[in-house]
């Protein structure tokens, strides 16, 4: 719960590059107490629906590790299927990352972003997007260094942030305690030029006034600017 943090202030961000040695791109992304391990794998071949297309593909997987939460969450593999929440988050991550790159510049390759939550304290899906975006850039730079691809596929960087509304007050980058008490929960993904990639939102308590929603989107811009700057700082190290 925020004590000294302002309503429009995101949590402290820490990005550790090359966290695992075998992935083409790897980042441990930390915001507050939330920690997400993001690994990028690049393999030859594309899905069947792209077989005759001169393009590549990108997909994402997401999971909460058993003790990432206050009580042990069961591995979805033991249940035999993924939850609707997991599928929704994976699709959000995939759409967000695909917006970053020109897939025609990686023809014949499939990129998989694996996002595993080590510690969940709110904002895990937005942290996964941010960490995977950083790891994706590292992986594509590695492909260019090895001359596997000739052109830089990156179109722009992206950033994501959670925004909540409680009693018509807008809070940026919610931790778990805040998220569990919020009236409206938003997840916002923007480019570095503040172009919208996706906005997810649900009024879980009181209905959301549209003027307040506009304020929430406006406050997300400055927070996402800080996220993207943190990514740039990590990439420049």
Q: Give the uncertain stretches in residue-range form.
A: none
CATH architecture: 2-Layer Sandwich
Per the CATH scheme, the topology name is Ribosomal Protein S5, domain 2
Q: What is the count of β-strands?
A: 9
Radius of gyration: 18 Å
Strand content bin: 25-35%
Q: Helix and strand succession?
A: EEEEHHEHEEHEEH
Kindly report how far apart the N and C termini lie: 31 Å
Mean pLDDT: 94
Secondary-structure blueprint:
Blueprint: E1 13-17, E2 25-31, E3 34-44, E4 57-64, H1 76-79, H2 84-98, E5 109-119, H3 124-145, E6 158-166, E7 169-172, H4 176-179, E8 184-191, E9 196-203, H5 210-236
Parallel strand pairs: 4-5
Antiparallel strand pairs: 1-2, 2-3, 3-5, 6-7, 6-8, 8-9
How would you concisely characterize the structure shown here?
By secondary structure, the chain is of the alpha+beta class. 30% of the residues lie in helices and 30% in strands.
Key traits:
four-stranded antiparallel β-sheet; single chain; Ribosomal Protein S5, domain 2; five-stranded mixed β-sheet; 237 residues
């Amino acid at each position: 719960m925020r004590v000294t943090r302002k309503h429009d202030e995101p949590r402290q961000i820490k990005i550790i590059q090359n966290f695992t040695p075998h992935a083409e791109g790897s980042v441990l992304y930390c915001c507050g107490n939330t920690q997400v391990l993001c690994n990028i794998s690049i393999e030859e071949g594309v899905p069947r629906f792209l077989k005759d297309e001169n393009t590549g593909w990108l997909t994402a997987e997401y999971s909460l590790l058993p003790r990432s939460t206050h009580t042990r969450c069961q591995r979805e593999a033991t249940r035999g299927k993924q939850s609707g929440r997991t599928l929704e988050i994976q699709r959000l991550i995939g759409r967000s990352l695909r917006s970053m790159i020109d897939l025609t510049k990686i023809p014949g390759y499939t990129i998989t972003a694996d996002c595993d939550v080590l510690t969940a304290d709110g904002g895990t899906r937005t942290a996964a997007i941010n960490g995977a975006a950083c790891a994706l850039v590292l992986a594509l730079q590695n492909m260019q260094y090895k001359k596997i691809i000739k052109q830089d596929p990156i179109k722009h960087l992206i950033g994501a942030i959670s925004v909540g509304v409680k009693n018509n007050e807008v809070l940026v980058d919610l931790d778990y305690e805040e998220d569990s008490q919020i009236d409206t929960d938003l997840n916002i993904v923007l480019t570095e030029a503040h172009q919208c990639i996706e906005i997810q939102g649900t009024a879980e308590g009181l209905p959301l006034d549209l003027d307040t929603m506009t304020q929430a989107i406006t406050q997300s811009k400055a927070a996402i600017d800080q996220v993207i700057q943190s990514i740039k700082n990590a990439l420049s190290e």
